[in-house]
Amino acid sequence: MWLGIRASLAGARARRLERQRARLLRDVTAMQTALVPEVPSQLGGLHVSVAYRPAEGPAAGGDFYDLFIPEPGTVAMMLGDVSGHGHEAITHAALTRYTLRAYLQAGLEPRMALALAGRVLADPAGEHYATVAVGLYEAARGTLTYALAGHPPPMLLGLSEQEPVTACSSPPVGWGIPTGRRQTTISLAAGTAVCLFSDGLIEARREGQLLGREHLREILASLGPRPVAEELLAEVRAAAQGVPDDMVACVLSPRVSARNEQVHIEELEVDATALARAGVRRFLNECSVPPAEITRALRSAADTASAAGTAVLRVTLGPEETSVAVSAAGTPAWQSASAHRGASVEGLQARAPEPMTASGARARAVA
After folding, report:
1. 36-258 domain in CATH 3.90.1010.10?
2. Which of 79, 197, 233, 350 has the largest CB neighbor count within 10 A?
């Protein structure tokens, strides 16, 4: 009789644990789905292709993406990867995604959205952080403006073969140090494409080595002028012997050309501390700025930073010449842009929606 009672109790406990496990899996699946939502194949003048594959193993990671229209004629996008795996990583990814989405909807440009998120999501212990790529595509101008925080630069297909400028790259969101200091604006013509991806693609293992950026570029080129994100992840998985991290990719290409003029602008926000280091000069060198112009720009930036706290170096790369403009932080990249998008972080902080707490992000993700 005693053995029968024990067996009955053990069976009831096993069934209860199985129900709890099923509920937990549903919650985690719902949260993961919230981080990698379905996206239409055409959005605001762009052909869009997105795909996500979890890492090999039982623990889900914190990769996420989002594409939406914050205002007519503009497409906002983000793609990121938070540290760690499992339920906690997914929760932090949801918090990061919805915080950045709120700032983009409030009108902040990419680097300012990252700068503000870096302040409010700072983790004193340094355990929770996220690498993120944030961008805005403006259909009328045919331009993509993007900023990175510890994230690999996108692949540009059908454009100049010049590698993206990586000097003075901004750190991840959550490290507790200023981020959102760099921003790039480029033209996208019909027939070109941009691929945003997480580091899981280039850190996949192949013959004992990382797959790397160059091999990823070869895979992309083999997929034709308009790669499909799902095919890209399948090719990376086939080429690698191991995929230790989540993989997420987003491929964007304009449906029509907006203008013939080619635009390429690199921006860097600096303060006195940054100007005292060699990185700012290296950034200007990578932008092919002439030496005499570098000296003039650094002197002007030092004067502006002394008066305003920080200065923005805005380098316009043209087919024949490269020029540098220096201004106080907050000057819009396009003078015709709406005033709220060019406002300072401090001015917009009061208007931007408050970032959600971790519990709020968790509740919205599960919902």
Report:
1. no
2. 197
